[in-house]
UniProtKB/TrEMBL annotation:
Phosphoenolpyruvate binds at residues 22-23. This is UDP-N-acetylglucosamine 1-carboxyvinyltransferase. Keywords: Cell cycle, Cell division, Cell shape, Cell wall biogenesis/degradation, Cytoplasm, Peptidoglycan synthesis, Pyruvate, Transferase. GO terms for cellular component: cytoplasm. InterPro entries: Enolpyruvate_Tfrase_dom, Enolpyruvate_Tfrase_sf, MurA_subfamily, RNA3'P_cycl/enolpyr_Trfase_a/b, UDP_GlcNAc_COvinyl_MurA. The lineage of its organism: Bacteria, Bacillati, Bacillota, Bacilli, Bacillales. One of its GO terms (molecular function) is UDP-N-acetylglucosamine 1-carboxyvinyltransferase activity. Belongs to the EPSP synthase family. MurA subfamily. Cell wall formation. Adds enolpyruvyl to UDP-N-acetylglucosamine. The modification 2-(S-cysteinyl)pyruvic acid O-phosphothioketal is found at residue 119.
Amino acid sequence: MDKIIIKGGRKLSGNVRVEGAKNAVLPVLAAALLASEGKNVIRDVPNLSDVNTISAVLKSLNAKVEADADNNEVTIDSEDTLFSEAQFEYVRKMRASILVMGPLLARNGFARVALPGGCAIGSRPIDQHLKGFEAMGAEITFGHGFVEAKAENGLKGAKIYLDFPSVGATENIMTAAALAKGTTIIENAAKEPEIVNLANFINEMGGKVVGAGTDSIRIEGVSKLYGTTHHIIPDRIETGTFMVAAAITGGDIIIENAVPEHNAALISKMGEMGVNIVEVDEGVRVYAEYPLKSVDLKTMPHPGFPTDMQSQMMALMLTATGTGVITETVFENRFMHVEEFRRMNGNVKIEGRSVVLEGPSKLQGAEVAATDLRAAAALILAGLAAEGVTRVTELSHLDRGYVNFHQKLEALGAEIERVSSEVKEGKKFTLSN
Ligand SMILES: CC(=O)N[C@H]1[C@@H](OP(=O)(O)OP(=O)(O)OC[C@H]2O[C@@H](n3ccc(=O)[nH]c3=O)[C@H](O)[C@@H]2O)O[C@H](CO)[C@@H](O)[C@@H]1O
Ligand SMILES: C=C(OP(=O)(O)O)C(=O)O
């Protein structure tokens, strides 16, 4: 079992470059299945375990997938007839596997996908995805742990109002509608930058999608889509995580490839805390000096504050002065990391869907376990600011969404290493509590 070991107290400085966005590449690789002629070449693909998982799903569906990890490129050839079933072994590993449902339904008129079930951050139902498919004429059935959608006479365009601007439902409905007969309108659609990225990709394949990035998306179905070359947008959550890394250490770093407009809510909140974030030619510069002051924040669908930055901001707020309240409105159970922060002497308690922080906490290094992807990053961030040594385990979560996270932090001056259980600790530097 790997662990990351951090000796806190170093200010970070220098430049770091963010990768292509995990949450943009997963729907794009699934949507590549829509092309029945020509190959799709996807560029700026991050080398993540989730990308390996979605690639395995595509292969299991009879697509040919070639990864060139050195050049961050994946090529997908989905010209042959596709199989219609996505197995539990993939969906269990990664919920985003459900995103093949829209493209399969569009291509084959049938899709059978293992039900994803809940995960560490909440129950995460898919009713809004299915409501969209049903409105387009699919019949939905459940059995033996699978959900099936069948549209024997093909999908028809429809007007769909989402109860909540679900990212996944918006993506799945967009891809299903791309090859449907007629026009589909998604109202109360998700507005995340990753939705715009997916709409651009569908259009590059020859589709007709307008309105992505607003709450009303219009998709005119076309009869065929063609392989193309597409670039993935930079990862706004990796960007945000490095913004917090600079701030929590009182450091000064430049994040290359960052797109500030994608992180407006985060930049505004960090600004309220006293962190300086300025646009520079390469991306953004982030610098901070203690003491930071605590704020209140509430996670919301984009352009609100992103739930995927909630745990990292909690780490930062632990080091800030005053009382802060974080309210999670997107997922019902995304506070598993709170107990781990308490093990690090964090003064934080859960009150319903909020946590209350009384700061600053004098963070102490401890052994902690990552409970989900962003919690993994947040615990490492807390370790950068803690007194003594922090050991973070359960790193499979981290590897889903961050490329070379500890190497990037080390290059910025952090005292950090990753060891596997077979290797003795303290290879690079002397670690003691
Ligand atoms: C691969 C990917 O892009 N993952 C992101 C995506 O997840 P994902 O697409 O799963 O997130 P959604 O926006 O769909 O989910 C948000 C909320 O809506 C609920 N819901 C969703 C669909 C549905 O049919 N019914 C329903 O009730 C979910 O349980 C959750 O409480 O957006 C989330 C919200 O920004 C991010 O945290 C995830 O990192
Ligand atoms: C929750 C996340 O991802 P997923 O939806 O893939 O679980 C995330 O990226 O923080």
